[in-house]
Every structure is written in C-alpha cells, then in structure tokens.
Design brief:
The chain has helices at about 35-40, 100-105, 105-110, 115-135, 175-185, 225-240, 255-260, 280, 290-295, 315-325, 345-350, 350-360, 375-395, 440-445, 470-480, 485-500, 515-520, 550-555; strands at about 1-10, 15-20, 25-30, 50-55, 70-85, 140, 160, 170, 190-200, 210-220, 250-255, 275, 300-305, 330-335, 340-345, 370-375, 405-410, 415, 425, 450-455, 460-465, 505-515. The protein is α+β, with helices and mostly antiparallel strands. The strands form five sheets. Strands 6-9-10-22-21-20-17-11 form an eight-stranded mixed beta sheet, sandwiched between helices. It binds aspartic acid.
C-alpha cells in the first residue's frame, strides 16, 4: 500500500512507482490483468493504492542500482484504489521550488517528499540517540508543566487566560529552567527533557515562537561535568546517527578571546580569519586615518581573506560598503598585482617594508588579501565579526561537510541595555557569578563574569547553560542587580528563594537547541525544514490559520474583552 509517486505507460505496460515512508517500489501492470489495467489507466500521482501481486527480479537491463528496491518489481494481479487525490500545488514526484507559504499550507503533502520525510526521520533518530545516551548516564526524563507563572529567558511570554481565575493568566514556559532547578532541590539529581519552549520574540527569518530544547540539569556538579555530558552525548549522536566521529573534549574559548579574535560570541571555526592587531606596523605612519585612530586610543585590526589577493577594485569597493554597513569606518586592502608585486592604497603611506612585515605577522600567503580597519575597539570587533561572516558566505569558506564544535566560556554575568539603560542578565537571572567575581556584584556588576557557557556548532549558538545560584542570599543579590526590589523578587520568585532554604544542592545545567542541531545534521539552512508543522516567519500557520480571532463566546468564557489597536 502506498502513494502513486509516478505512473508511466510504456509499450502496453503500465509502471507505477508506489511510495511510502520506507521508499519506492516499482509495480508493473500487464494488460492481461484487464481489471487492474483499466484501473491503472485512470490513476494519477498521489492516489492511495493497495496492490496485490508477485515480487519478482527485474530483467537485467531494467535493474536500477540507485535505489535499494531497484532489483525487484511487483507484477500486479489486483489494484484497489483506496482514495483518489487532487493535484496539490506541492508536487511530490516533480517538485519545483514552490513558495514556502504553499508548502506550509499543504504541509501534509510537503512532508511526503522523500527529502522532507528523511528530515523527520533524522529528527526522530537524533532524539532517540539523545534519550538512549541520557538514560545510559542515569538521567531521568521528567516532564515539567507548560502552564506556568513566568520563566524568564529574556523574551516576552505567551499568555493563556484562565477561565476559573477571571483576570489571571498562565504563561507558557520560555524554558523549564525554574522547574528543573526545583527538581534538583527534590533530589532528582540528573534530569533531562526534550522540552518545548515558547518565546514571543521579535520576528526574524528563522525564528519559531515554539521550539524544542534538549534540556538537562545535574546536582553536585560544576561546569566540567556538564560540558563532559554534552560532549559525550553529541559524540554518541554523531556516531550512531551520522556515522561521524567528532573529537572530544571540545576546545574551550573564553568569551573575551572570542570577541577579540573573531568579534563574535559564536565564531564559526571552520575557517580562520581571526583578527590581528597590526598597530605596531602602522603606528608611525603619517597616514591620517591610522594616526588619528591611535592618537584617540582606538584600535587597528587586520583579517586575512584567503585566496583573494587579486580582487578587483570594484569588488574591494563593494566589500568596503558592506563593512560600512556594519558600522566600520572603512577598509584598506593589501593585495597583489598579477606580477606578484604589492598592491595597496596605503603602500605609499606605509611603505613596502612595513607592509611586508605586516603580511608576515598576519601569516598571509601570496594569494591572500589582507583587510585592515581602524576604530573604537568594541565597534571594530563587532563590525569585523559581521564582515567575517559575510565574507565566509560570499567566498564559501566553510567546509559544508565539517562539524565544528567548541565552547565559549566565562561570559559576562550582566549586559547593559543601551536603549533602556537597564542592567540585564546576559543568560538568565539564576546563573551563578564566576567564583572569582562575586565581589563585583556590590562594586561594579557589569565587570562580573558568569559561570556560564555556550556551545557553538558551525557558528550557531547550539547550547547555553550555567552553574546555578543555590543560595537565597546570593540569588536575592543578583535579582537586585537587575533592578528587582526585594519585594518584587519575592513576589515573582519567592517559591524558588524559599526552596533554596530547604536543602538545595549545588547544581548546574544546560539546554541544546534540538531544531538547529537537526537542521545542521540534515544540511538544511532553515529549522523549518526539520519541524513537521512549523509557523512561518511571521509566527503564523498558513494551514490552521493560527493565531485565530476568538469567537465572542470564547472571549466571554475567559472574561476577556479585545481592544484593537487604533491602526487596525
Ligand atoms: N534555560 C536556559 C535556556 O533556555 C538553558 C540553561 O541554562 O540550562 O537558555
């Protein structure tokens, strides 16, 4: 039984490729089987059939070694048409790139496409490998509630109004964070969950309002234990599902180093292009840009773009514009002419000797192009970091077959929000300060590092976690740093603060984004390709039309009244 993938009429015989989740089988209908033949003449793609017949080896020249059922076929004696099918805008057998809205609207057909079916199967296998590994490591899978009071992870909450408590709402969890910590207080010791999380964040191309985490927490543990479990789990997943050996332990890079060398807290290390401080080669030039930058305490950094020494002026101008779009003052280039001689707009000002020394210092090969920029250190790093990502994309520098995994550790505990002037947790407010930095909570909170870590996979933030606070006093202090009065803190998180006083063990944990992990393993750019029924980029489901306008009756039951914004 299955779906008609394709029907071909050939020299009196009708061939049907019958498809199901497991693959494709060739079915042959001979006119001698009159009843079956007559039915076969009328079927079209995506009709649902049951066929009866004899499995036989295909004649030699018609064997197809490209598919695993290519040596056999079914000679049909009977066909039952279980259900006809309309022609869908999403063609399974002859897929043309259709607009994503249509794919999502007809997702049930879209998922029949073998590549999509494979993505869903891969997701299952990865999830199962995770469960197997965690079970083997003595972790308990525990479900935590999804109708909760707010669990803050820095996004807005999705709210669910209560019927029985008029005027009150539940929040959908942004993560199981608080509950998994409470499970540690309960003595559960090692918890994990494949957990759905909900975050109402500003729309971005590849963001989903609900997504899935591999969430875990461990007691009597610190950072090393958590990183070790994740490394072991991923090695197991890659080995069993992808047949890929990844090297463990992963590199650990302090946050400040990631910023200094790559201008990012999630640098893709499949390509180098690190930043080099080249101030010593440019410090005594009269060239105004460098001179005034250094006089004003700014920085100068260089980055090596492999293989592009001969780029045309036109392309250099384009790169310069991209750089300016990222807030950089502009770029200077050191490349080569066809004859190998130096080509650079700063050659005159800096001189050949210094430039050659600079090229050696940044380890540029003869065919590399060196990009130099000056500016205020943080802006320079951030701008070059974005440019680095753009260049890698433009010149295809990342090896698509490679999985590059490393940790970024020692994040700052807090971040300063330029817009609101508020101090916010860089991770979440339950993250412990770095043991050496607790004193800064009183003197200069923004200086404190966190005992927090991120996992970076091919330039994506694949996981985020931290050692937790487990003492009431310290938790109250950190909540104070982010502007909560003691009263607010107790009103919001009193249950957690109380729990800390009933024997809370030291604990730590992490959560990995399952959707992105699967997408990367599947070689897909978008996480929507590995989610069975995703929302589109504006958090809307073209199939079910969610979110929908509630009926008056539903509103009444929930004691709700809707006021539409004036613009609508
Ligand atoms: N709850 C955190 C998050 O969702 C992960 C963790 O700290 O374990 O990012």
């Amino acid at each position: 039984m299955g779906w008609v993938h394709r029907r071909r009429d050939l020299g009196g015989l009708i061939f049907i490729d019958l498809r199901d989740r497991y693959g494709m089988t060739q079915v042959v209908v001979n006119p001698a089987q009159a009843e079956a033949f007559e039915k076969a003449e009328r079927i079209r793609s995506e009709f649902v059939l049951a066929v009866t017949g004899t499995v036989r080896v295909r004649p030699g020249e018609t064997r197809n070694s490209n598919i695993n059922t290519g040596d056999v076929e079914v000679a049909v004696t009977e066909i039952r048409l279980l259900n006809p099918a309309k022609v869908s805008p999403v063609q399974v057998s002859d897929y043309q790139n259709v607009e994503e809205g249509l794919r999502l609207q007809h997702r049930y057909v879209d998922l029949r496409r073998p590549s999509m079916t494979q993505n869903i199967i891969l997701r299952h296998k990865i999830t199962k490998a995770v469960r197997d590994y965690m079970d083997g490591q003595n972790f308990l899978e525990v479900e935590t509630p999804t109708l909760v009071s707010s669990t803050p992870e820095g996004a807005r909450d999705y709210l669910v109004p209560s019927r029985v408590h008029p005027g009150s709402v539940y929040a959908l969890p942004q993560s199981p964070q608080i509950f998994k910590q409470l499970l540690m207080v309960s003595g559960m010791d090692r918890y994990f969950q494949i957990a759905r999380c909900y975050r109402d964040e500003d729309l971005r191309a590849d963001r989903q309002p609900e997504f899935t985490q591999i969430d875990m927490e461990m007691s009597f543990c610190g950072q090393d234990d958590v990183l070790g479990v994740v490394e072991g789990m991923l090695a197991h997943v890659f080995r069993t599902v992808m047949d890929v050996e990844i090297e463990t332990p992963f590199l650990r890079m302090p946050y400040h180093e990631a910023a200094e060398l790559y201008g990012s807290d999630k640098p893709d290390l499949r390509y180098d292009m690190r930043f080099h401080n080249v101030e010593e080669f440019l410090s005594d030039t009269e060239f105004k840009v460098f001179k005034s930058a250094l006089e004003n305490g700014q920085s100068i950094r260089a980055m090596v773009l492999p293989g592009q020494a001969l780029t045309s002026r036109k392309i250099q101008t384009e790169l310069d514009e991209t750089a300016k779009g990222h807030g950089l003052g502009g770029l200077f280039f050191v490349g080569r002419n066809e004859d190998g001689s130096l080509k650079s707009s700063i050659l005159k000002h800096v001189g050949e000797e210094k430039l050659l020394a600079l090229l050696t210092a940044v380890k540029a090969q003869d065919n590399d192009l060196v990009l130099i920029s000056a500016g205020e250190k943080k802006l320079l790093q951030a701008g070059l970091g974005k440019l680095r990502v753009d260049l890698a994309k433009k010149y295809d520098l990342a090896d698509k077959n490679k999985f590059s995994l490393h940790w970024v550790v020692d994040f700052p505990l807090f971040a300063y929000n330029e817009e609101t002037g508020a101090i916010e947790p860089e991770h979440h407010p339950f993250t412990s300060p770095h043991p050496d930095d607790v004193e800064y909570l009183d003197s200069d909170p923004l200086k404190a590092r966190a005992a927090a870590y991120d996992l970076v996979l091919n330039g994506n933030e694949a996981a985020s976690g931290s050692v937790r606070i487990f003492q009431r006093e310290l938790q109250e202090k950190v909540l104070g740093c982010i502007g909560l009065t003691l009263e607010d803190a107790r009103a919001k998180f009193g249950f957690l603060l109380d729990a800390f006083e009933y024997g809370a063990p030291p604990h730590a944990g992490i959560a990995l984004g399952l959707d992105r992990l699967v997408a990367i393993c599947a070689g897909q750019d978008s996480i929507r390709e590995v989610i069975a029924f995703p929302k589109n980029a504006s958090a809307y489901c073209p199939m079910t039309h969610a979110p929908v306008v509630p009926s008056q009756e539903q509103l009444d039951i929930l004691h709700l009244k809707v006021e539409h914004p004036a613009s609508e």
